[in-house]
Amino acid sequence: MRNPRRDFIKTGAGALVGMAAAPVVARAQDSQTFRWRMTSAYGAGAPFYTTGPGSASDFVKRVEAASGGRLVIDFYPAGELIPALEGFDAVRGGTVQMNWGNSFFWSGRSFAAQYFTAVPFGMDAMGTNAWLYHGGGQALWDEVYADFGLKALPAGNTGMQMTGWFKAPLENIDSFNGLRMRVAGLTGQVYQELGVNVQVLPGGEIFPALERGVIDAAEFVGPYLDRQLGLQNAASHYYTPGWHEPSNVSELLINRSAWESLPDDLKAIVENCAAACNEISLAWCNANNAEALKDLTENQGVTLHQLPEGVLPRLREVTMDTLSSHANADPLVAKVHNAYFDFKQQAMSWLSVSEKVLLDQVL
Predict the structure, then answer these.
(1) Distant-in-sequence, close-in-space partners of 337: CB < 8 Å, separation ≥ 6
(2) Measuring CA to CA, how many Å separate 85 from each of 10, 62, 198, 202, 347?
(3) What is the Cα–Cα distance from 296 to 290, expressed in whole angstroms?
(4) How would you classify the pairing of strands 197-199 and 180-182?
(5) Is 336:144 a contact under the CB 8 Å cutoff?
(6) Rounded Cα–Cα distance for residues 356 and 6 (Å)
(7) For the chain, what is the radius of gyration of the CA atoms?
(8) What is the pLDDT of residues 45-92, one digit of tens each?
(9) Dihedral of CA 282/82/79/267: which sign?
(10) Cα-Cα-Cα-Cα dihedral of 166, 210, 116, 82, to 10°?
(11) Which stretches within 93-201 are classed as H helix?
């Protein structure tokens, strides 16, 4: 005859053994440690990108702290381990596990990469984050990089940028013809259609080129970061708006095999630290740009201009033609392009009855 009390003791003891064993397995997983290397497209000491809140160095500190030292990332600014714009190949080849930069640097590998940094006449930071986090943008980013064995995450945003710095004032759209200008990404292709001699230079090379007259104009980011480079000492005409980069996403590029080797909790830590830096860096830019612009225009001899009448419509026309030509030539680009602009239309329908209405009254 079965003894219920004896059966309970047996099953209860078995359950207790299972409960005791489970934490041992968890502790074994928790003891895994990883030491990775991360390079950058930006040099040592560069605010926003390399140092300060939401920067690459901030990110690696957050990951180490959040993981209790289980994931330690050694950070190498541009030039310390590899040149500034070789992060894509370094991560793809496994030389390093991560790179901090911008996806539009790799648009020569796949033009679709452009959409995950900045799209001329595209969405602002708020719309871009909505698309990446909740509108399918991240999944498309993963798809674009899948064949390269790479994974990427948004890890920063400058917000709206400026048109840039010019040694001489712009009169009209013809002023761009023959201009030597430092620009990056799709913007360069658009300007080339207007006769601009486009120069692609890392941030650290912009000021000397502008000062020596190697280039006539340059765009970088916005008032605070531009002032840090000293661009106001090489050109005095500063133009708005940043039609070419209404939002600019910092990219955390990760080797896919290395990513998949991480336990789920460390993946979550990386994702959350990247998301934190994305928001914190945007707030940092917005907090510092107003003061910097005031200083530039009131104390440093800079003249702030809006682009001349007729320039923005022509730039928009060339931009849309350029984007369409790339989309027509590549199904994956078309997929990303259509998804981006479909989401933009949806986002703008909301912004047009919310933020825009208020801004029209207070500005």
Answers:
(1) 112, 115, 323, 326, 327
(2) 64, 25, 17, 8, 33
(3) 10
(4) parallel
(5) yes
(6) 73
(7) 24
(8) 999 999 999 999 999 999 999 999 999 999 999 999 999 999 999 999
(9) positive
(10) 180
(11) 125-134, 137-146, 186-193
Q: What are phi and psi of 172, to 5 degrees?
A: -165, -170
Residue (of 362, 350, 340, 267) closest to 112 by Cα position: 340
Question: Where does the pLDDT of residue 361 fall: very low under 50, low under 70, confident under 90, or very high at 90 and above?
Answer: confident
Max CA distance (Å), the chain: 102
At 45, list the tokens. 């000491």
Q: What pairs with residue 74 in β-bridges? A: 37
- 182-220: burial string, b at 16+ Cβ within 10 Å, e else: bbbbbbbbbbbebebebbebbbbbbbebbeeeebbbbbb
**Does domain 31-157+248-287 fall into CATH 3.30.70.360?**
no
Q: Which two tokens stand for residue 342?
A: 């479909």
User: pTM for this structure?
Assistant: 0.87
